Amino acid sequence: MAAGAVDPTVRATPHEPPRVAVPAPPPAAIPRERLEDELDRGSQRDLTVVTGPAGSGKTVLLASWAAARDAAWLSLRPEHLDVARLWRDVACVLRPNGLELGAAPMVARAVPGGLALQVREALGSAPGRVTLVLDDLHLLRGPALTLVGALAEDSGGALGVVVASRSDPDLALGRLRLEGRLAELRAAALAFTAAEAGELLAGYGIVLRPDQLARLVARTEGWAAGLRLAALSLRSEPDADRFLAEFAGDDHAVADYLSGEVLAAQSPAVRDFLLCTSIVDRVCGGLADALTGGDDGGRTLVELHRAGLFLLELDRHETWFRYHPLFAELLQARLRREHPGLTPKLHLRAARWLSAHGLGREAVPHALRVNDPPKVADLLSDQWLDLLLGGVAPDALIAAARLRADDRRLAVAAAGACLEAGDASRAEAVLAGAGATGDRDDVDVLAALLRARARADVPAARDAAARLGGGAARDPLAVPVDDARRSLALLHLGITEFEAGLLDVAADTLDAASALAVDERRERVLLECLGRTAALELLAGRLTRAEAAAGAARSLAARVGAERSAACAWAYCALASVHWLRDEVDEAEAAADAAMTAAYAAAEVPAAHVVRLLRGHLAVARGDLDRGRAMLRTVLDGLAITRPLVRLWLDALGPRPWAEDDEDDLDVLGAAAARLARGDALSALRRVEGLLDPGVALHPTRRLHAWLVAAVARNSLGHTRDASEAVERALEIAAPERYRRPFADGGGAVRRLLQRHASLPTAYAPVVAELVDALERVSAPPPGLLEPLSDRERDVLRLLPTLLPNTEIASELFVSVNTVKTHVKSIYRKLEVSSRREAVARARQLRLI
Fold first, then answer.
1. How many CB atoms are closer than 10 A to CB 164?
2. Alpha-carbon span 256 to 249, nearest angstrom
3. Among candidate residues 583, 563, 580, the one with its CA nearest the CA of residue 571
4. Nearby residues of 84 by Cβ (< 8 Å), 6 or more positions away
5. What is the separation of C-alpha 252 from the centre of its chain, rounded to a whole number of angstroms?
6. What pTM, to 2 d.p., does this model score?
7. For FRET with 632, which of 46, 156, 643, 696 sits at 20 to 30 Å CA-CA?
8. What is the maximum alpha-carbon separation in the chain?
9. For residue 471, what is the DSSP state?
10. What confidence tens digit (pLDDT) does each residue in 302-358 have?
11. Cβ 329 vs Cβ 257: under 8 Å
12. Nearest Cα to Cα of residue 364 among 348, 340, 341
């Protein structure tokens, strides 16, 4: 039902030649060796089936492969429904390869098995094996398809048939698969990888950053036509980031292609089905029936999936499906244009069905799109626990809570949304208005917990978490693993402890919450735990574990669409700090930029201050002392430094001997480093000796710096053996977690100590060799850049790929707009470009960004 109808009585004109030439490749076609290897292996079997929706690259792949292997090629057309015509054209393409199929049979077509018999007789004495490629097999059915099956199964090994089709052909695929005579290449395999997509775009003259390329591949899901259409549009787009943010299924190029190749071939009934079911992220038969008012949704979905209609199966039982995102966006745009009043009604139907079937989390987005406030309030009230997981704007929940002033559940959900948005005072106001101040049930207890979090009251938060589902004396961590309320309570308690700087107890609480989240498949709770766990690991000095937790949080955030959440901000803060402490400055700057973006979006003020601290260190590392001090002062001179997390992070990033001109304003370690830089080794050593005591609680970064200061000071005083011992102790801290920046901060004095240490017995010889090599390496200007960029010009250049205008770049760099404009003109001149887009592309070629 999904394919366009074709009249089986169609006959070709006698003089029209078959399309036997292998199609020429399109512009910027790239070799796809992994798929060609699959085809090489598959062509040894009787039948190879390559299936995928329109534009998935089937023809391009097979044409490239067939041309290099002297395969026979036939592009199928509607007239090949005439089995006699199909026979003649197959015979025509096989003849140059030494196979003679003979004249078209007249009687065999009417006898069961006659075509198979005729094929066996014609090819029984074939001199060798030939590969036959049949493109667009989805156009055939009936006797013509039977002939293709006979060619594959009954050639006696003379033919290896390779077919391309938008859907599975109606052949004996199950039997051939069981007999080992079938090879398959599906849409998932045809999807372009990031590397292949980058090569394809390069053929169009488009070079994207890795993160931009990843976004485009994710957006298109590797769909070949989508990538090519995007490349064509990008050639005329000055701002790649903006284009990628707006690239969707209603983009005119994508819409024209999908409308012509897919929608135009559907019947009105199927088209209406597609439009109505496009509003949900995933659909099953029951949900489809609820949306369309029909009773055969399950069967229709299976038929559409098998017809190759951009409908992806989500399980092995053909129960749940989802549309390709670009196709779904096209359908949604058509729905809004053709049936403007239907969309809210469909969302209401979806919300009711999903809620009734225990899928409350999926019901929430649809409930928020219903243009009926009382109905929205009723739907949201039923899903209050799912709303506490976050991801919903507080305004909608507050409006619903006002409509249902007697419903404490909505007030609790609204307060949770306010806290997620960084508005603690508003959360308190919402809870006060709901009157949830007693201890009647779990709703009141959760309200008390959120109120405690808003007030940063850890004892009250622990008391509320302990009361939830048990007595006041109960340990809040001793929880039943199947209690959804407990996982939420532990999350909010853990965040309260985290924000108070209680690192050990916060780690235990968040670990318990994440365990429950995994058991209950609550991804948002898990994300909130992972992001803060990454921060906790960094503050404990465990860089490897911090990096792993941050990576897990980033992956999960991308999957659930929460890249700009507070959890993601903390994950990026941890990742940027890991890169900094490992002396990976470029990577640290990129992660810091991502952290600030997420921190601003989520109003996570402490995370934003942490990024400013890190940017201060990075600026000094780039040689810009004034900017580094300015960034540091924005944190230290304000209320930010009173926040426990900011103070702890200040220590984790290392000492700041450059922070002040007056040594008395520095901390102990910074003052010791300053004294050492002035040549007062004895005073420096006295200042750090107390920090070397293992009994003193100290972040590993600071202890590592302290040992290096002691090493240089002892060496200056002539105590070379003690200096070597200090270096060994520093390496003992650095080696397991790959700390590198403290050694770079030590400059030539530390480099000379390491060079000498390399000749001494040490447990860390490979680390010493690596450090010496890194410290001795002299950075050279990139080839192709005649005049090097200044440090400030590099700072401006790093922000050019973003969407920030010059005014915001100036704010980020603490300079005037005119200064930014001057730097931009200088960058253009040195890079020999005339636009922002050209500057970014040229800088990437030179590996400047």
1. 25
2. 10
3. 563
4. 104, 106, 109
5. 25
6. 0.65
7. 696
8. 108
9. -
10. 988 888 788 888 887 888 999 999 899 999 999 999 998 899 899 989 988 888 887
11. no
12. 348
